[in-house]
Amino acid sequence: NHSRPLHGLHVLVTAGPTQEPLDPVRFLTNHSTGKMGYGFAHEAAALGATVTLISGPVSLPEPAEPNITTIHVTTARQMFEAVQQAYETADIIVMTAAVGDFRVSEVAGEKIKKAGRSSIQIELVANPDILAWVGAHKRTDGSQVLCGFAMETQNLIENAAKKLADKHCDMLVANNLRDAGAGFGTDTNVVTVLTPACGDTSTDQAPQQPNVEKWRKMGKTDLARQLL
Ligand code: C5P
Question: The DNA/pantothenate metabolism flavoprotein C-terminal domain covers which part of the protein (predicted)?
Answer without folding.
Answer: 6-228
